[in-house]
Amino acid sequence: MSISYFNLLPNFKYLSPLKEGGKRDQYIEVKNLFKRIRLKSEVFQFALSFNDYIIDDGERPDTIAEGLYASAKYDWVVLLSANIINVEDQWPVPEGKLWDLADEKYGGDLNAVHHYETTEVKNSDGKLILPGKLVVDPDFTIQDPNNYTQTINPTVAVSNWLVETRKNNEKRAIRVVKREYLNTLVNDTKNILQYQNSSQYKRSTGKVATNNLV
């Protein structure tokens, strides 16, 4: 049975803000949204536990989870294994929306030059002389590797639109946990989110706020 992240969150009882009947000891039980986990960077070194994944245009965490784990409820697994905290900023947007956002940001300068960068240069033997995509001035020159008496200007203009497209495409490459390790990740997450013993501890999945009004 698939488990949503919300169901894994422990509960928390806090004093009710409602003053019904003059009682000051009524509690409301809610999910503790402040509890969350994040995979340590060293976890991603275990390549056998993950697969590389390229997010297609319009795909969402829940649709990817449906395809990989047969349940959209595992959208949180997709985000966790991809080390994504803020979907709004870290998830690629559809191309149509990207155009609207870029147009709002740059207006009439959408296709204006953002910067100049190098193009790859090799000599006649195929040896790399200059890597591409280095930010340079528009008049940047180097000696022609095949004719030392000449200089070349291996630069290209990069538009604002291309910059935004590149940024968005960089977000498409993520890593997702393999299906055979899904249950292990879910069980580990459940254990991590449980409460430890404290003055507020009632059970592993629940705490009660201190009543300072009594």
Characterization of this structure:
- 28% of the residues lie in helices and 25% in strands.
- It has helices at residues 5-8, 61-69, 75-81, 87-90, 95-106, 160-170, 182-193; strands at residues 11-15, 27-31, 50-54, 113-118, 121-122, 128-130, 135-136, 142-144, 147-152, 155-159, 173-177, 201-203, 206-208.
- The strands form five sheets. It has a four-stranded mixed β-sheet, with no helix packed on it.
- It has 214 residues and is α+β, with helices and mostly antiparallel strands.
- Helix 2 (61-69) packs across helix 3 (75-81) and helix 5 packs across helix 6 (160-170).
- It has seven helices and 13 strands.
- It has two domains: 5-92 and 173-208, no CATH class; 98-166, no CATH class.
What would you say about this model in short?
The protein is of the alpha+beta class and 214 residues long. The chain has helices at 5-8, 61-69, 75-81, 87-90, 95-106, 160-170, 182-193; strands at 11-15, 27-31, 50-54, 113-118, 121-122, 128-130, 135-136, 142-144, 147-152, 155-159, 173-177, 201-203, 206-208.
Describe the protein's topology.
Layout (H helix, E strand, L loop, with lengths): L4 H4 L2 E5 L11 E5 L18 E5 L6 H9 L5 H7 L5 H4 L4 H12 L6 E6 L2 E2 L5 E3 L4 E2 L5 E3 L2 E6 L2 E5 H11 L2 E5 L4 H12 L7 E3 L2 E3 L6
Helix pairs in contact: 2-3, 5-6
